[in-house]
Amino acid sequence: DSIEKSQKTIFVLSENFVKSEWCKYELDFSHFRLFDENDDTAILILLEPIEKKAIPQRFCKLRKIMNT
Question: Can you give the residue ranges of the TIR domain (predicted)?
């Protein structure tokens, strides 16, 4: 509920967080808002270098953003 009501969501991405179930839920929701509703609410911070292949395939647009 708080994620839905937030104006911005900050993700501090690490290898372990990317592998967690909680991360998948948060990224699903943020991905939906960013690409389906065209609502730029996510702020991504890479805590450490993360291999693109560590990001689940269903977040292909997120993987593309990480290249920029």
Answer: 1-68
pLDDT tens for the chain, 68 residues long, are 566 677 777 878 888 887 888 777 777 777 666 666 666 677 778 888 888 777 777 666 666 766 65
Q: Residue 38 has what DSSP assignment?
A: -
E-assigned strands of 1-68?
9-13, 42-46
User: Can you tell me the distance from the alpha carbon of 31 to that of 21, in angstroms, rounded to the nearest whole number?
Assistant: 15
Any idea which fold 2-66 has? Rossmann fold (3.40.50)
Q: Which residues share a beta bridge with 12?
A: 45
